Every structure is written in structure tokens, then in C-alpha cells.
Amino acid sequence: MIKTKEIIRIKHGAQYESNNNILRDYNLEVYAGEIIYIQGLSGSGVMALFDLLSGNSNLDTGEIYLNEKKITECNQSILLQNGIYTINAELGLVNSFTVAENMEAIRKVGSLVKIFSKKKAVHKVNSYLDKEGVLIRGDSIVREVTQEEKIKLSILKAKLYEAKVIVLDFTTEYYEGIFAKELGELISRINQEGISFVILSERLLPLIRVANRVQLVQNGIDLMEWDYYDDAVKSILFQQVEYRKEFNMNPMEKMFLGLYDYYWGMDKNIWEYLDSLKKDNPGYWDNYLNVKLLKPGLYYDGETVIIPKESSSFLLNNFGIVDNIAITIPKRIGKSKYGILRKKYAIKVAKDFYKIIGVADKMKSIEDLNNVQKKILSIYRWEVARPKVIILEYPYIAMDIAEIEILRNYLKHVALKGIHIVCFSNSLEEMKYDCNIIISTENGKNTVLI
Questions:
Q1: CATH for 6-243, among 3.40.50.720, 3.40.50.300, 3.30.70.3400, 3.30.310.80?
Q2: In terms of pTM, does the model score above 0.90?
Q3: CA 277 to CA 225: how far, in whole Å?
Q4: What tens digit of pLDDT does each residue of 361-419 get?
Q5: For residues 153 and 166, is the Cβ–Cβ distance under 8 A?
């Protein structure tokens, strides 16, 4: 790529805070009209970079240049003045406002707000969205649109605010399938107008395909950089061999059943998908799943467990780890399933959990667990009920590569106990790595084996 005007430059950036997610000797250049994809595991410095570019932190040593001018402080006001616009999971949208109000009203201040015309704003925003090929309407309430649509709106809002560089934090979000394709097309189209993008991730995203440049960050250092993307680069980013050695984890045998749907939106749930799959493909259901279809919102029926994508958030923070596990254990004194649990048995199953996650049993609180440990707990507390099948919706959502490896090894441990593992995702890469059988559908229909 021919280098154009430099928008951002970080030279030997370092921070000395007492945590592992900092920059140590980091370098970055972002030029006008380019898309740079930056990947690193959790704690590698990727989130520290986002905090820096959001104006939430500063460097202790090193230099930052914006639009080829050195700055001494990197705060939000200075970044916005220089056209640096950041988007993370919060998206910067007001949920109680309409799309038009998010795009137009909050741009007006003081007395101008009093003469704001909702009708004119909706018409103006609808014209803008039509031009950008987005079907959302200006009078829609933001809380009622999907997460995918909110991301598109956030990017288009940044463009309206005359952003020169849009920084996308996808460290806690992961998108595959049709939405990843649509998002990549939107980014590429806006990029053609001269707006640069910085895409931050802790795992390999399909959006890497639209990037002009790829950077790997490790331990706060810009470890490697490429101005192309091929199988060799993919192998480094997807496998990250050094972390497999560190965690003593090798690729596992393919032993799961995969349900793959390129067109399934993240706003839909696993119960909707399973209902569509069974109704439209009874032969596949009987041959490969052969379980009773659970009612929407029901997680367990004695034989089948459904683990939705947000399962970690269902853990009860006001309960201890042992109590979260005990909720699902059927071996109780008394006829009710909520009867008294034998204390000796509860302690035993909790010790097994501590052994699986590799920590001392003195850890008592849910808040002491990290991201992958919480996910394992959300599965383990159903595993102890000894179901025949566990169905996982997007099992690796919001995890980096090292965390995925830890969860994979745990799921292998579960499968070796004779529990059938079924994974639903719109990521074919994950499916190919995990599953010996993959059922592909289009919105739950048109089933084929791949």
C-alpha cells in the first residue's frame, strides 16, 4: 500500500501500571485510507491500546503524533478534535433515543436543541441510511434494534461526525457468518471515502480479509506485522503455537457434532434454531441429535442441557461457587428437586471443579473467576446432573485463543464421560477444528452435511 498522510503514530509507547495489560515498547502508524487489523491475546496490550486511543489512559514514556503533530496528552477531547473515533461494546448510542435522535439531536447543543425537528431529522437520517444501504429506519428506538444493527449505526454515526480514523474494539465481541460479511462490506465502502479503520481483536476475525495491514501484539510489543494476509499469517494468528505450548494444549480429536448456520443472526436464540431445525429437517434431527426439543427458555429436561451464549451471566454473583454448582445437582434429601443437598456430596463436586480449572479450593466467589473459568462453571454445574447431551450456543464467544484452548480441553473431558457435545455457531473455522460431523443449514433450513 502506498503510504498517504499519517493520522496516528505511536513510537516506543510504554506504561508502567501494575497489571499485565499494558504497552511496553509499542509502535503503530495509521495512514489515511487504510484498514489495519491488530490481534493479541487477553493481556497482550490490545485493550491498553484501545484505552489509549479512547483517551482513557496515557503513555508514561514514548511519543504520540496525531495528524503529524506531536501531542503531550492523549485525552478524549484532543482525539475527537483530530478525528479519532472509538467504538466498543457500549457503542456510544443512547438506547432510549431513536436512531435519528442519536444521529442528529445530540449533535446540537444549547438553544439549537429547542428547534430540533424530529420529522426533519428522521427524513434526513432515512436518506442517509438508504444511501449507505442500511434498512434501519430513523424513527426506530435504538434499544429495539439488534446488536449487529447497532454496530453499523455506530460506524455510520462516526462517519457523520467526520471521523478520520474509526477504532473498533472487537475484543469482547465475535461475529461470523452473514453479518461479518455485511460488516466487512460496510467498512470497505466507508474506507473508500478515505476513512481509516483500526480493528482490535483477541482472536482471528473474518474482518481480517478487508485489512491492508495486519499486526500481532504480544506482551505490549508490536511483535510482527504484515501488509498481506495468507495461509502462513493465518496459521500464526489462528494457532499461536507458543501459547499452545505454554498451556500444554495440542489440537484435540474431532469429537463433537457441529450445527453451522452462516445466515443465523446473533439476535436470535438457540431455541429458535433448534425448533426450525427439527421442523424442517426431522430426518437429520432423529439421526444426529435424537433428543426431545426443549421449550423456549428451558435449560434441562433430565437428558438434554442447553447452554446459551450468555450462560456466564446467569451465574449468581451473590451465591458462592459451591452454591452455584449445587443448584443443579439432583441428588438431594427429600422429594423436591430443591430439597437439601448432602454437604459431603456438594463439597466433592466443588473440589472436582477446582481441579478442572486448576486453582485452589480457597477460591469461593464467582467474582474471583476469570472469563473462561466462569464459562466452564456455567457448563460444569449442568454436567454434574449427568445429562446425555449438552448443546452449546456459540461456545467460544468473547474468548481469546488461549481461553478457547482451555474450554476445548474441558469439553473434551466432558465428552470422554459419554456426554454428547453439540456446538452451534456461525463460525466454520471453529466447526472444522472441533467437530467430526457438521450439519450446515440456512436459517435452520436446507440441511446438508459438510
A1: 3.40.50.300
A2: no
A3: 43
A4: 666 788 888 889 999 999 998 988 889 999 999 999 888 888 888 999 999 999 999 99
A5: no
